[in-house]
Amino acid sequence: MTVLHVAFFALFFIATTTFAQSPDAAPPPAADSTATPNEQNVESLAAIERGLKWLADNQERDGSFGGQSHYGKHVGITGLAGLAFLSHGDTPGRGRYGRSINGCLDFIIAHGSESGLLAAETSHGPMYGHGFAVLFLAEVYGMAERDDLRETLRKSVRLIVNTQNEEGGWRYQPVRNDADISVTVCQIMALRAARNTGIFIDKSVVDRGVEYVLRMQNPDGGFRYMGESGTSAFARSAAAVAALQYAGIYRGDAVERGLQYCKAFVPPDEHSVGHYFYGHYYAAQAMFLAGDDYWTSWWPAIRDELLAKQDEDGGWEGQAGKEYGTAMALIILQIPTRLLPIFQK
């Protein structure tokens, strides 16, 4: 672990204590900073190395990812790829994938507008990609000495704050018209990560986002997509639980019921195939933050399933393209390294 990692983790622990206040808010159990022997094995470590190599080999010259999918070059997929490299312990310009991280930074910063929106020309429904890109910028912030990074991050966070709608949520476009739980979760995580860098986030913004998420919970413990009624589904329910945890609500009825709902979809489960990587990206984080039996029962199952799904060339096919699937799989597989500040407990 580098000095930059240590310094940033210190900032992380200070910042997270004041991110949100709630009757159910409580610090999660302390965790070691390295994976335990039961979390990683020879096969998973080899799969990670092969996946990272595939990802680096498929980065565009301008630093972007997503060009192989129907989405085109995409700041969100580029941000996820950057998070995958950071999870390996590399930092901008340092380590095996330091140049790749710099490339991700270059592309995302180059596609920041004066309004603060981070989006490539091919983007549709840009707030999804914006949220993932902001998350990456915030995670890398303490590791990169770039004058343009803080200004880009500051503007992009301001956009999130200014586009929160009356319900407390966000939607595909950077306007205050309506909201859905998936885009809202993405913005809550981005705000949490940005708050960790020292950027001021008004408590009311987070509280209203949390209230929106809580209103979407159904009696079965799962979460609906939007509105006053709708069915629960695994992927968005996992995302909602993770968002509550990242907002500081680690315990309580809503989180417990959400975890129990998601636990029914432990791999292998044919009912969780919709939005597979999106769902398991959040579910793995939710189970990790919940700890204890939630994590010890979930982790080997998703780890082994991801190993079985890896292509011979080292990548993973995903609903939004192979670069997306590979980045998501690598983030999940590297959660036990505990190197990303937002994954620290």
Describe the fold and architecture:
The protein has 345 residues and is an all-alpha fold. It has a single domain (3-343), classed as Glycosyltransferase (Alpha/alpha barrel). Helices cover 53% and strands 0% of the residues. It contains 13 helices and no strands. It has helices at 3-16, 42-57, 75-87, 98-110, 127-140, 147-162, 181-196, 203-215, 234-246, 253-263, 276-290, 292-309, 322-333. α5 (127-140) packs parallel to α7. The longest helix is centred in the last third of the chain and has 18 residues, at 292-309.
Provide key terms for this protein:
345 residues; mainly alpha; single chain; 53% helix; 0% strand; Glycosyltransferase; 13 helices
Q: How would you briefly describe this protein structure?
A:
The protein has helices at 3-16, 42-57, 75-87, 98-110, 127-140, 147-162, 181-196, 203-215, 234-246, 253-263, 276-290, 292-309, 322-333. With 345 residues, the protein is an all-alpha fold. The chain has a single domain (3-343), classed as Glycosyltransferase (Alpha/alpha barrel).
State the end-to-end CA separation: 16 Å
Domain module count: 1
Number of strands: 0
- Which structural class best describes the helix and strand composition? mainly alpha
Amount of helix:
40-55%
Strand content: under 5%
Radius of gyration: 18 Å
What is the CATH topology? Glycosyltransferase
Global shape: globular
Average pLDDT: 89
Helix and strand arrangement:
Blueprint: H1 3-16, H2 42-57, H3 75-87, H4 98-110, H5 127-140, H6 147-162, H7 181-196, H8 203-215, H9 234-246, H10 253-263, H11 276-290, H12 292-309, H13 322-333
Helix pairs in contact: 2-13, 3-4, 3-5, 3-13, 5-6, 5-7, 6-7, 7-8, 7-9, 9-10, 9-11, 11-12, 11-13
